[in-house]
Design goal:
The chain contains 7 helices and 7 strands. It has helices at residues 25-40, 60-67, 74-85, 102-111, 147-153, 157-167, 189-204, and strands at 2-7, 43-48, 88-94, 118-119, 128-129, 136-143, 176-182.
C-alpha cells in the first residue's frame, strides 16, 4: 500500500534519538512505524508539517479559494494530491490541551477541502469521500494526561474530532484505529523502548 504519514512535532521527524532537550517520543514512534512499514514492503510518503513550513492559518484569500474548490497555496495542493493517492493514512502528534497541535488542525481545515477531498451531498447527510484508495486511518498520540482521565473524564476529544467529526462524517467507518501513549515521560527507558518495538511490529502487520 501507499501509506501517507502526517507528522506534527516542533522538533521534526529527526528527533527520534534519546537526546535530552532534542528528543520527541512522537518522532520515535514515527521511526518505529516507518521500520514496520518497510518490513511489510509498503510505500512510505512522509509529510513533516514543521519541516515543510506549513502555515495552519486560514487567510481571507484562502477561505475564498476554499469555497471555490481551489487553493492558492501550492503546498496545500501538493498535500491534497498525496491524500488522494494514499491507501492508508497515519497521523502522529502529541496531545496539547486535550487536542491536536495547531499544524494538524490547520491541515484538516485547509487540506480537507470540499470538492477535492470530500463532497457535500445533501444538508444534514454524511459527506461523500473523494479519496478513492483509502482503506484505513491510524492515529498515534502522546500525552501526559492519564489514559483513564482522557477517555472517561474528558470524553476522548481527539477521536471525536478526527474520527467521528472528520473521517466518519466523510463515510469512512472501518479501520479507524487509535493508539495512545500516555505518561511516557515518567516511564523507564526499557518501557518506552518496549512500546516502540510493539508499534514497529504492529505496522509490520498492516494490511
Amino acid at each position: 500500500m501507499n501509506v501517507l504519514l502526517i507528522f506534527d512535532h516542533p522538533y521534526g521527524a529527526t528527533a527520534s534519538e534519546n537526546v535530552p532537550h532534542q528528543r520527541s517520543y512522537s518522532a520515535a514512534l514515527l521511526a518505529s512505524v516507518m521500520r514496520g512499514l518497510t518490513i511489510k514492503g509498503h510505500t512510505i510518503d512522509l509529510i513533516d508539517l514543521h519541516a515543510d513550513g506549513f502555515d495552519p492559518v486560514m487567510s481571507h484569500e484562502e477561505l475564498t479559494a476554499w469555497r471555490q474548490k481551489r487553493t492558492p497555496d501550492p503546498l496545500v495542493a501538493n498535500y491534497q494530491q498525496r491524500l488522494i493517492a494514499a491507501d492508508h493514512i497515519v497521523f502522529i502528534f502529541p496531545i496539547w490541551w486535550e487536542a491536536m497541535p495547531a499544524l494538524t488542525k490547520g491541515f484538516l481545515d485547509k487540506v480537507f477541502a470540499k470538492g477535492i477531498v470530500y463532497e457535500e451531498t445533501k444538508p444534514g447527510r454524511p459527506f461523500k469521500c473523494l479519496l478513492p484508495n483509502i482503506k484505513g486511518v491510524s492515529l498515534l498520540t502522546v500525552m501526559n494526561t492519564p489514559d483513564f482521565f482522557y477517555r472517561w473524564i474528558f470524553g476522548n476529544p481527539i477521536t471525536k474530532i478526527l474520527f467521528r467529526g472528520t473521517f466518519r462524517k466523510m463515510g469512512i467507518r472501518k479501520n479507524l484505529r487509535w493508539y495512545n501513549y500516555a505518561g511516557m515521560s515518567d516511564r523507564s527507558l526499557e518501557e518506552r523502548v518496549k512500546h516502540l518495538d510493539k508499534t514497529e511490529q504492529r505496522f509490520a502487520r498492516l494490511d
